[in-house]
TrEMBL record:
Protein name as it appears in the record: UDP-MurNAc-pentapeptide synthetase
HAMAP family: MurF
Residues that span the membrane, as ranges: none
Domain Mur ligase central: 112-299
Native species: freshwater metagenome
Pfam families named among the record's database cross-references: Mur_ligase_C (PF02875), Mur_ligase_M (PF08245)
GO molecular function terms attached to this record: ATP binding; UDP-N-acetylmuramoyl-tripeptide-D-alanyl-D-alanine ligase activity
Cross-referenced PANTHER family: UDP-N-ACETYLMURAMOYL-TRIPEPTIDE--D-ALANYL-D-ALANINE LIGASE
Amino acid sequence: MEFNAAEVAEFTRGEVVAGSPQALAVNWSFDTRTMGPESGFFALTSDRDGHEFVDQALAQGATVVVVSHLDAAFSVSPINQAVVRVDDPAIALRDLAISARSRLTGAVAVGITGSAGKTTTKDLAAAAIGTKKNVHANIKSFNNEVGTPLTLLSAPNDTEVLITEMGARFAGNITDLSELVQPQIGVITQIGMAHAEHLKGRSGIAAVKGELLAALPASGVAILNSDCDQSIELAKRTSARVLTVGRSDSADVVISDVVVDGDLKTHFNLSTSWGNSEVHLSLRGAHHVNNAGMAVAIALEIGVDLEEVVENLALVEPNELRMNVVCTDAGITIINDAYNSSPTSALAAIAALRDITVPGRRWAVLGEMLELGEYSDAEHQLIGKAVTDARIDKLITIGSGALALAQGATGGDVSVTSVADLPAAISILDSQLEPGDAVLIKASRAIGLEVIADHLLGRPVR
């Protein structure tokens, strides 16, 4: 979305202090590594101070930079670049996003939250709607106080459907994001234990996720998971119409006859008031079935025909590091689910490892699930028990934070090894993996287990 420097200054209560007020930005970023031409650059402060990169941004072609203080070293073209000074670039980013949202007067906004499945449901919903409408969705997992404003700022003016996933680590986060997005459709995929440390357990998580429902207008639609025991209470948070999706016969969109093939691809039947259909997915794992059901509900509410929705869903491929199934030249099957981990998604991944058809052994290489706080040991032990119940052959846990996971797996038939770091895990795998084996790789994002997958696949280390 286009804003010139003068407009940026007006909407953020700042001032143009260098360059031309007519300098125009058409893309927006806070990261010079991903910045395109004619970009607006916000000098945000987190692990690094974004002001350290302003010169680099300008040299790479940024046309408008938003800062809180000036540096004499800034080199600004007087014709097509500008510097806007504001009190706080993070607040300015939000303020400009509010202006961007106000331009999308005809767009239907969809907010998606939940303890797992947000990104997949968002991607499936965008695909399901297809070319029927002009759809704009957040990239990757841009779902917080920085990613959501950037999603709004990157929306084309002719956007008809805006899809945003909403993450939360603290109470009030989703209320803040909803004020920006102004959703008419709100989706809660499920309530698990992700971020339990900050959100005070499952009931606290439900309360925060329910902020999305409270933000919906009475004319809106809340889409809830009928298989989640929190949904009945969540429905009380909204005056909007409630649509349920799940495997219960009482759901509005009923999922039935789920089949998972040996490659982890699924097909299932859907029964809806819009009609009935069989759905085939290329995504791997039975847990994607409910995500797909939610996406179908969104698309049907938007006005897409069921037949078209089903055709579109069949074409969706998995995102990087999310249930990517690849066979190495050595004949070893890698289930790379290293993007992130929570109790809910870890259980789903273990089920996938159980279900995949391979002639050899099944290995689970698991690291810590972060941000569980006082619930950490109990939740890790439950995952360890799930590994045993799934009859996995080998379990490698990595790091001291995953020791409780190893403890949960003791006493069963699984062979358990705990190692301190990634190199130790790689050494075991290199020496013991055999053709025909399958390896699941999963941990919270900060653990960096994708390095193991890259090694086994012969890729350069990231």
